[in-house]
């Protein structure tokens, strides 16, 4: 049985607590976890390899609201679970329940979880949110629900990355992480509040091709991409690509590409210390000023201000 460990409270408890855990069994199942706890909020990054399908008995240590983000998934074609780059929000109670773990085909499956209390939820609750209204009265526990599942946005990946590499320590780090956790949860609320698009007439084959296009974009977003070339690559017509992509992923093809490019540009500026004109060229902009305008529209500041 896997149990979420609760940190022992004491008078000198630091504002941010961290722990790492690595487990391996003779069958080849391996999992690595990194956890950060602050102000009643838990952040958990995990990755694992599982050779054979298995069921794990799991017992949470408290009642909580869990947001599970599937960052990377070798079995993205599995229609019985959330896909790669999707998230789901559900409630947990301190009762044992079983988790089905499908095989990862000798590849790594990675995830992130934001775990908050009912007080956290109630503090930001508003009747203006359709999702929050429905979720507050939802009485199914320890089981993710498709109705509270949505596509991850590139900005969500950025926030998750920023929390793992917080530039502060002590109480300032706790404040920073709480602000980021709130921002991430509110981003989920906005995504789950989006009205359901008019269903596109997609066959199972169309859906699979659209997911393969999205995966192709994830790998090649820095290269010049066009609707015509993407449609030809996947064997789907251009209209179905544009409408189907929007219906499945709640964003346009070029909106998705632009989001990935801007997040990578931000990383290159901050972590690789590249010059603005170098990043603009790498992201496919002929003129740096066009890149600067797009970056400012996305993040609200100039690239040079980010570097400073």
In DSSP terms, counting alpha (H) and pi (I) runs of 4 or more, how many helices? 11
Largest sheet: 7 strands, antiparallel
Oligomer: single chain
Low-pLDDT segments, ≥5 res? 5-10, 76-80
What's the level 1 CATH class of the largest domain?
Mainly Beta
- What characteristic shape results from the CA principal axes? globular
CATH topology of the largest domain: Jelly Rolls
Mean pLDDT: 86
Q: State the end-to-end CA separation.
A: 48 Å
Q: Helix-strand pattern, N to C?
A: EEEEEEEEEHHEHHHHHHHHH
In CATH, the architecture of the largest domain is Sandwich
Organism: Chitinophaga ginsengisegetis
Keywords: DNA-binding, Transcription, Transcription regulation
InterPro entries: Homeodomain-like_sf (IPR009057), HTH_AraC (IPR018060), HTH_AraC-typ_CS (IPR018062), PchR_regulatory_protein (IPR053142)
GO molecular function, one term: DNA-binding transcription factor activity
């Amino acid at each position: 049985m896997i149990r979420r460990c609760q940190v022992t409270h004491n008078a000198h408890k630091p504002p941010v607590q961290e722990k790492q855990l690595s487990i391996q069994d003779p069958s080849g199942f391996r999992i690595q976890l990194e956890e950060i706890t602050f102000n009643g909020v838990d952040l958990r990054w995990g990755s694992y390899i599982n050779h054979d399908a298995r069921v794990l008995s799991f017992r949470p240590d408290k009642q909580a609201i869990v947001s599970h983000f599937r960052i990377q998934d070798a079995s993205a074609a599995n229609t019985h679970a959330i896909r790669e780059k999707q998230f789901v929000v559900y409630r947990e109670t301190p009762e044992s329940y079983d988790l089905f773990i499908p095989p990862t085909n000798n590849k790594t499956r990675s995830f992130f979880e934001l775990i908050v209390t009912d007080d956290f939820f109630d503090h930001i609750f508003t009747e203006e949110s359709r999702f929050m209204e429905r979720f507050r009265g939802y009485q199914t526990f320890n089981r993710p629900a498709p109705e509270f599942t949505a596509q991850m946005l590139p900005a969500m990946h950025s926030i998750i990355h920023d929390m793992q590499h917080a530039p502060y320590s002590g109480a300032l780090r706790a404040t920073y992480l709480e602000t980021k956790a709130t921002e991430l949860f509110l981003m989920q609320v906005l995504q789950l509040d989006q009205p359901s698009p008019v269903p596109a007439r997609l066959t199972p084959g169309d859906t699979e091709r659209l997911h393969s296009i999205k995966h192709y974009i994830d790998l090649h977003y820095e290269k010049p991409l066009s609707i015509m070339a993407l449609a030809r690559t996947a064997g789907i017509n251009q209209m179905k690509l544009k409408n189907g992509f929007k219906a499945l992923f709640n964003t346009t093809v070029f909106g998705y590409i632009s989001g990935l490019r801007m997040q990578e540009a931000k990383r290159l500026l901050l972590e690789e210390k590249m010059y603005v004109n170098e990043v603009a060229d790498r992201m496919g902009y002929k003129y740096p000023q066009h890149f600067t305008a797009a970056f400012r529209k996305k993040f609200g500041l100039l690239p040079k201000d980010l570097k400073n």
